[in-house]
Fold this sequence. Notes:
By secondary structure, the chain is an alpha+beta fold. The chain is built from three helices and five strands, in the order βααββββα.
Amino acid sequence: MPKFLIQTAASFRIDEIYRHTLEQWGATKAGSYITGLFAAFEKIETHEVFSRPIPAEFGVEGFFFKYEKHFVYWKYLNDGTVGVVTILHERMHQVERFQNEKS
């Protein structure tokens, strides 16, 4: 069983992050950033990244942590797998954006 599952909204965000980083800083930085992001996903299960509960005003149960300039939102799925729900840049309005993507 995989350690984590990238859900649809998170998959779109990863693509956007890669494209933006590629355009702004080039292929090396884009690849490095995404590789680091996936390494952080791997560390969720072993608690090597410090995650906090998602605030109640978000209306969902789950956790989040910061990876460089992004917040990673995740939750435990019914089978116990970690589901990466979405990834938002630190400048995005967290509550509003997350509520639009939580389903």
